[in-house]
Amino acid sequence: MPAIYAKAPGKIILFGEHAVVYAQPAIAIPVNKVYATTRVIPEVAGRKNQVHIKAPDIQLDVDLADLDEEHPFAVTIQQVLNAVNLDHLPSLTLLISSTIPIAAGMGSSAAIAIATIRALTDFLGKPLTAGEISSLAFEVEKIHHGTPSGIDNYVIAHQKPVFFTHGKPIEHLEIQQPTHWVIADTGEKTSTKDTVAAVRKLQALDPETYHPIFEQIGEIAFTARQALITGNIDLLGQLMGDNQRLLEQLTVSSPKLDKLISAALTAGAVGAKLSGGGRGGNMIALAPTQNTQSIESALLEAGATRVITTTLNKGET
Ligand code: PMV
To answer: Where does the secretion signal sit in this chain (predicted)?
Structure first.
């Protein structure tokens, strides 16, 4: 049996992070330039029902039997077994790798789970729909994030720009005009689980202050939906600034994020904000044209450890 290979992209949240955990809408897009891959290599001889996992990016080289059952890879495999009604896998090696920055708000955990679910279910001859894959990956996301909204697994499994509200039908955005985005990494590792917990604590202590902030962020995402479809970059830029100020009130920005945001705006970006959990990780800037060179250089000069550009193209639904 030949090796089977599957791939899943990174993602970036454009609007609505954190508020999305409280049932407000958010917008996210896949980022195809970075991705996770999983290769299933059938064991040719010897050991019976042995599953070996190699993930060189995180220095993991281990038998499944030796992994804690709460480990995300163990949970991913268990989700697959449940979904296809099997109690064990045949002998195989899983080779997992990723170019998505880890703990940086680009969906690396969801992408790894999704590439692995895809590779295993294809290998077993039981491919699943994007919706089914997203649901399985959501269970894995709970380990990483505690109380995830589900936006990461959804956008990565469907590989489409989405207007996402937890528990509501999800809209795939039909883009009419391209927009150009620059994503810059602060180099500061961040834990989404921790930032979500910090925001949860704030809103539990003072719901009268924080619930209106979530609602305002939700309104921004709602307005941004149409602006993104039609490529109204001036409005998008303004909404990014408004969203960033509300995220600052949620205490999830950081001095380095603020510095990169201000560098991007000075270099001509029409808008900039943090993206994802915050307190580190990535920020995004909206470029006025396809030529993003000056914004990229300014971000690197201001201390970004990595810059990725992505275009949201017309017809991407
Ligand atoms: O981009 P990430 O993986 O850091 O996700 C963060 C998005 C949050 O809204 C903060 C949490 C969530 O589950 O939606």
So the answer is: none
Q: Tell me the CA end-to-end span of the chain in Å, nearest whole number.
A: 35
Determine if ligand 1 sits within 6 Å of the CB of residue 20.
Answer: yes
DSSP letters for 148-168:
--SHHHHHHHHTS-EEE-TTS
pLDDT single digits (tens) 286-308: 999 999 999 999 999 999 999 99
Indicate whether residue 148 lines ligand 1 (CB < 6 A).
yes
Instruction: Kindly give, in sequence order, each residue whose CB lies less than 8 Å from that of residue 190, ignoring residues fewer than 6 positions away.
Output: 103, 104, 105, 276, 277, 278, 279, 280, 281
Q: Cα separations (Å) of 163 from 79, 160, 281?
A: 26, 10, 22
Distances (CA, A) of 175 to 29, 74, 98: 11, 38, 28
| Total count of domains within the chain | 2
Q: Are residues 118 and 148 in the same domain?
A: yes
Joined together, the tokens standing for residue 198 give 């910090």
Rg (CA), the chain: 20
- Give the position, in ligand 1's atom list, of the atom nearest the Cα of 107: 3
Instruction: Say if residue 197 is in the same domain as residue 245.
Output: yes
Residues known to be catalytic: 152
List, for residues 34-74, the tens digit of each pLDDT value: 999 999 999 866 666 689 999 998 889 999 999 999 999 99
User: Atom 5 of ligand 1 has which residue's CA nearest to it?
Assistant: 276
Query: Quick one: 57 and 31 in the same domain?
Result: yes
In a domain, 169, yes or no: no
Q: How many of the other CB atoms lie within 10 Å of CB of 243?
A: 25
What is the reported pTM? 0.92
Return the half-sphere exposure (C-beta side, CA atoms, 13 A cut-off) of residue 142: 9
Q: Which domain holds residue 180?
A: 174-312
**For the CA of 278, the nearest atom of ligand 1:** 4
